[in-house]
Specification:
Length: 168
């Protein structure tokens, strides 16, 4: 489900007992709007090829990633076969290497350890930070597609990072 007024998707998937807010970049919203247009009257953005009332199968996603890796190989590009989950791992790795806050990354991936005291007590959503990080990620991917480099801004402009004001 998406909330177009706040650029937020709400996911409640397998293994998740509570909703998880997924903040969407402008590019992601554009893609979702295009997918909804193609999906017609289906309630799914990616409906089954044969039944608009059913979602696209996981096997279809696996076939797509296999086809991408095979095409890259034919074109002499160094891309090993990968799964959809590998995309999450790659995104997490690159965002961490770029220096984004690991708490924002873990929250964006819906990774929560409710067994640790930190997981029990820290209920921060990091909404503005996650919005910023995911927009920066999308802008970097666009730059890579265009053959450009782009250094991300690691903190949203709204976050004051200067010295703390002295308190009396």
């Amino acid at each position: 489900m998406t909330d177009s007024h706040s650029n937020r998707g709400i996911r409640k998937g397998a293994g998740h007992s509570k909703p998880h807010n997924v903040y969407l970049s402008e590019q992601s919203l554009d893609i979702l709007i295009a997918l909804k247009t193609c999906a017609g009257n289906s309630r799914f953005l990616l409906p089954s090829r044969y039944d608009a009332d059913a979602p696209m199968s996981r096997a279809t996603f696996n076939r797509i990633t296999t086809a991408v890796a095979e095409r890259a190989k034919r074109e002499g590009l160094p891309l090993e076969p990968f799964t959809v989950h590998d995309l999450r791992r790659t995104g997490s790795t690159l965002l961490n290497e770029l220096g984004f806050n690991r708490d924002w990354i873990e929250k964006a991936l819906a990774h929560e350890d409710s067994r640790s005291s930190r997981g029990v007590y820290n209920k921060a959503e990091y909404e503005p930070q996650r919005r910023h990080m995911l927009q920066e990620w999308a802008d970097m991917v666009d730059a890579w597609v265009d053959g450009r480099k782009r250094a991300p801004t690691l903190y949203p402009p709204s976050m004051e990072l200067g010295p703390l004001a002295a308190t009396v």
